[in-house]
Amino acid sequence: MPTEHPVLPAPILEFILPRDLSRAAVHRELGQRFNVKRETLDRGIVYFDTFDWLLHRSGWSLECVDAPKPRARLFRLSDSLMEEQPLDGPPEPFPRDWPRGRVKAVIERITEVRALLPVVSMGGRSEGFAVLNRDGKTVCRLLVESWRVSAARSAANVDL
């Protein structure tokens, strides 16, 4: 009788690539040695708060992500994800106009009648490379990300 082994989660290793190593070069180098499948995802993240930083002062951070599907994510400032809910598109300025959900309930209670303003925007590209074996099965995944960050003009300086 064969012994069953539990499936262990794959370890995640993170590296910072040299600035002169492009995604195209990574793909070219991998492709010379392995069968590689390439996927690209462009996405944006915008962090929101009220004009008087009520969310931050209450210990929360709100980010809205546009891809692969729009969603709002609410974090404790300790970086732990507390709630997540889908959005129909870009977030409305007033939480009362958001779709029903736990993120809406929390931020609506904190912000009351205040509008949410963009504080910081991040745009990024994730390029995934799946290294395939002879059977076409993925044996390794490599994700190369690049981000650009811009502060909203209306944002005041605050120590985060």
What does this structure look like?
The protein is an alpha+beta fold. It has one domain. Helices cover 16% and strands 39% of the residues. The protein contains 3 helices and 6 strands; from the N terminus they run H-E-H-E-E-E-H-E-E. The protein has helices at residues 23-33, 54-57, 102-111, and strands at 35-49, 60-65, 71-76, 81-86, 117-132, 138-151. A 6-stranded antiparallel β-sheet has the order 4-3-2-1-5-6. Strand 2 and strand 3 (71-76) form a beta hairpin. The model is unreliable at 155-160 (pLDDT under 50).
How do you describe this structure in short?
The protein is of the alpha+beta class.
Q: Averaging pLDDT over every residue, what do you get?
A: 87
SSE arrangement, N to C: HEHEEEHEE
Category by helix and strand content: alpha+beta
Give a short account of the largest sheet. Answer: 6 strands, antiparallel
- Range of helix content: 10-25%
Count the beta strands. 6
**Contiguous runs where pLDDT drops below 50 for at least 5 residues:** 155-160
Give the overall form: elongated
Gap from first CA to last CA: 57 Å
Strand order of the largest sheet: 4-3-2-1-5-6
Kindly estimate the percentage of residues that lie in beta strands according to DSSP. 35-45%
Q: What's the tally of helices? A: 3
Reconstruct the topology from this structure.
Layout (H helix, E strand, L loop, with lengths): L22 H11 L1 E15 L4 H4 L2 E6 L5 E6 L4 E6 L15 H10 L5 E16 L5 E14 L9
Antiparallel strand pairs: 1-2, 1-5, 2-3, 3-4, 5-6
